[in-house]
Amino acid sequence: MFFSRTTKYAIRSLLYISQKGRMVPLNELSENLDISFDYLKKILIRLNKAGILESGKGKKGGYCLKRRPEDISVGEVVKTFEKMTLEECKTMKCKDECMAYDGIISLEQKIMDILENTSLKDFGNKGKTGWQGERRIG
Question: Is the CATH number of domain 5-131 2.40.160.100?
Fold first, then answer.
């Protein structure tokens, strides 16, 4: 399975924000991750709408995680940007005639289980998340 550039940028952005543990301005993210400002803005808006990020306006505004890194699964992020279903097998005829259908569905479920059971904290550098106890730093 290959993830789109958008999904990879989303994960990189979330890990960066997680490590900072504070509101991170969009321009800081764009510069430090070398991602186009406008492209990154669209990604962060989707993450905000998905309930993964919070946004703040003003001088100290930016983006921060809405939940602790260990409470955000990579699967949740991936599903925000990727279609995780077998597109070709929507019709009953295809399902009935395709010898690989059941195996592919089983494999897709196993992949999603792994993604759902992998948190941002697992994915990033442990101990450098910017979180202490139940509260964000900063």
Answer: no
